[in-house]
TrEMBL record, chain A:
Keyword Transport: yes
One protein family per Pfam: Plug
Membrane topology listed for this record: Multi-pass membrane protein
Protein keywords: Cell outer membrane, Membrane, Signal, Transmembrane, Transmembrane beta strand, Transport
GO biological process: siderophore transmembrane transport
Compartmental location: Cell outer membrane
Organism whose genome encodes this protein: Cesiribacter andamanensis AMV16
GO molecular function: siderophore uptake transmembrane transporter activity
SUPFAM superfamilies named in the record: Carboxypeptidase regulatory domain-like, Porins
Keyword Transcription regulation tagged: no
Domain TonB-dependent receptor plug span(s) in chain numbering: 162-238
Listed name of the protein: TonB-dependent receptor plug domain-containing protein
From TrEMBL, chain B:
Lineage, top ranks: Bacteria, Pseudomonadati, Bacteroidota, Cytophagia, Cytophagales
Protein name, entry field: DUF4249 domain-containing protein
InterPro entries: DUF4249 (IPR025345)
Organism: Cesiribacter andamanensis AMV16
Amino acid sequence: MENYLKIAQGWRNFASLMKKTGPVLIFLFLLALSLQAQQRYTVSGYIRDADSGEELIGATVAVTGGGGLGATTNIYGYYALPLPAGTYTLRFQYLGYQTVERQLDLQADTRLTVALSPGEEQLQEVVITEQRPDANVTEVSMSREKLSVEAVRRVPALFGEVDVLRTIQLLPGIQTAGEGTTGLFVRGGAADQNLVLLDEATVYNASHLFGFFSVFNPDAIKNLEIYKGGIPARFGGRLSSILDIQMREGNNKEYEASGGIGLIASRLTVEGPIVPDRSSFIVSGRRTYADMFLRLSPNENVNNNTLYFYDLNAKANYILNDNNRFYLSGYFGRDVLGLEDIFSLDWGNATATARWNHLFSENLFLNTSLIYSNFSYGFEGDDGTTGFTWGSRMKEGNVKLDFTYYRNAANTLTFGLNSLYRHFGAPYITFDAATDFTVPEIADRYALENALYIGNEWKPNTTFTLEYGLRYSLFNNLGPSQVYTYQEGGERSNETITDTLYFDRLQNIQFYHGLEPRLASRYMLNSQSSLKASYNRTRQYLQVATNATAGLPIERWIPADRYIRPLIADQIALGYFRNLSQNRIEASVEVYYKWMDRLIDFKLGDQGNILFTNNIEAEALEGRGWAYGAEFLLRKNVGKTTGWIGYTLSRTMRQVPGINEGKAYPARYDRIHDASVVLTHDVSKRFSVSGTFVYSTGAAVSLPVGKAEVAGFTVPVYDDSRRNAFRMPNYHRLDLSATLKNREKPGRWWNSSWTFSIYNAYARKNPFAITFEPVYNGDPNTNPERDPIRSVEAGAVKVYLFSLIPSVTYNFELKPGKR
Amino acid sequence: MRVFYLLLAVLALVTGGCRELVTLELPQQEPRLVIEAELTDTPGPHTVRLTLTQDYFSKAAAPVVEDARVSITDDAGNSQELLYTQNGVYATQGLEGVIGRSYTLRVEWQGQVYESSGVLSLKPVIDSLVVQYFEAIPPFLDAGHYMLFYGHIPRGGTRYYRFKIYENDSLYNDRTDLLVPEAEFMPDTLREVRLGYAFTPGDTIRLEMYALNRDMYDYYYELRTLLFNDGGLFSPPPRNPTSNIRNVSDPARPPLGYFQVASFATDTVIIGEETD
């Protein structure tokens, strides 16, 4: 306890210090703008894939012999590099592509768009002569992981379904709630503290089939990046992480089709030019057929059911001219589950994004986005007496303006604003026929969230880089709504309500605002190693009302309001980055400490009380959390053998007055040790093998300290001051896969491959959950209602989901243009 | 909520997952006092059972407490010490439960004093029980004779109830039989409420409807949440239901269990012919 008080005191001092950083940051911005440059011109343009015309994100352009002068393309493939007048040799690079060099006599602003060819065959030769990109060491960013979809595809997949979220969970600092769940727990943050963006649109529930798969069809995805810390000022709205996913644009030169047939799902993608070199489209779909297996079951309780999900991604873009480009993209996906005609449940997300890239000049880039996203679910049930419908919908509209100002080689400014309106549809229940049951009417909630930000990346010299930014977020909980007032000083409950206040449409109920300073710096120790440090504050104005760990599709999002305050987190991180073996191997160590304030938990702990209530504040308890850890990563991106080894040592704690007798306790997803090994080896041009091994400390759980006889039940008894004080068995698993491609022939216009994979290769029965319940006849599968009962005793039952699961997937690509 | 356990079962079937017994090294705790006290609107005898907790995997019956002093007092000046009978049970003699009165339980054991109070609420009314045959709707409903319940709550009655169903005098008492309807959904009049049990002709079915105090309703609600706990992944972390009995001597060490003060209505029906 004393220890904790010290931590709390330290935290307060730190927080007040950080409040003072605001003016300092503003001074730095003014400094950045006042630096008067000599005669400079800007070379700018796009870096693209020569075959498909797709923009390459994060490709680099460097001035050879320029002492580290260079630029990186943004998520639209645009780069700008202001330089003094002169003659330069520019080198354009992207991993897996052939490097291109261009001579340039810069005497005016110059547009230089470069197409790089995929260069897998040349890779071996290039390795000897060419420096690998050393971005890992030289970039200012830390606590950030990029994954190419190609890398994701090579990881062995459950049921053969390539899954980006499951692959991300293999990186250090990112945990899962349990096998079979795709919820992310980043550096001690809860699953609702991640902002998941698909072409900038929020995806509220990124899981299919209760979390076995994520909603991201790998065929439609180009790039993904997760920020665990050091979050730039342009992102905000969630405490713990930003998962930024971009969809592909589609080939703007030739028509192509690709797809796959798997054990449980099939995929098909069609893409091509609308106007060659100016405009392209991509449409990608995926559908599972798990219910086909249900049909095979002889059990008629099973074979009459439907259970499937589908995803549809579509995107089109149009290059109007050098300065204007438009994008339209959308996603629609749903899960459908039906038990005969009696019961059906479906849920899913829909998103739409319209974007306009505009260049005011070579140095000033603007992206404007209009975004809509929604998540909804609906139940329908009819048990023979009264049918009912139960549903809910969450909607979000968003306008964003993001400017990038390439001021000079030493300063790149980003600034912009963001205005977001949310409609939190409350769960409703309606009955088909008249019924005596009174259904509580739960009111919808409304909120407006605005943010302004400015950030600068300052590179005064080649050894030091500082990225600093400030985000100012403002939040209004709006009407129409009703708000209860409670007796002063007492506990909030239905019995202590004193009054009800009514608010009109768009009337302000509660206002919150605050600054979110962001800092990141890098210091080069030598050409192969660097030290990095970052600090960021984040605020979050909505959360999922739940006290369970894993999410269900019926989860309820609630805004901050008069009683529920917004969440605040502060994180500091330090890192040492070193590249080995001529940049072929990247190594890093990061340590972090994160404070999370105003976390909520719930009193009674029944979801019903949380879903169907208008005064959730009567159930909520406010507390805090903290997390700290060290993350080690060794990664090899080039060569015949690629992959990574990651290890995380960490703790995640919570403290909520009224829970666990007020003492600190570990979060369920607290994992002391978490290690993963992901390796892929190209045996030949046609044949590759890969393997994944994961090991982690068991989940933190509460175990019974005894049992009691109460009300005719034998009930496990818990120690209410030792929440999550015990551990499930340690988790480990090995997955393997092998891919065989077709033979290469000149002029062949199609490619295909077979992937065979085994999930959980040594069939470990990793517990998904352990329950304490009466066991009849010594067999946990006895049904006491059907089977004769000979004995009953208190038992512990392990539930495991997956044994060894083999699968096979056939993938193909059709390129008629190559014929 | 329970629908999700069914869905999880379907998923486990798809994935080839399974349930099996495990033996775990479980933490130990000193035995704690468990109080099960009930008082109804009848002349009694009303009973209080005192037992102790024991190791989770113990094969023995719960140890009983025989040397406690137990008394019940009402707000009309009646007080009575309960006599020990057997099997941990203490019983009243002629203390009558009267609707509207408040009752206080006091237990003294090993230097600790435990207390709880409750009010006997207005009785609910069972208007009739009707038996009707339903065809099967798998997997939700088996074919059989079902009981339809008609009843109402008197003006000024509570919203907190528990139903108990007895088949030939034996109580249905699995975790699914803890019938405590959501207070928010509780109407004033209940018509044609089908109870989820398929009976066979010849069964004698008794229904009891208890009018609970709020704290007792919460207790049952939390008890049911605990009995359905999945280990804390989709359900909240398991915890003991909040007892409505406090330890007066040492408030930091509350007992387990409850003091239920509840009036009840009851009716019996014999399954055989269809009634209208």
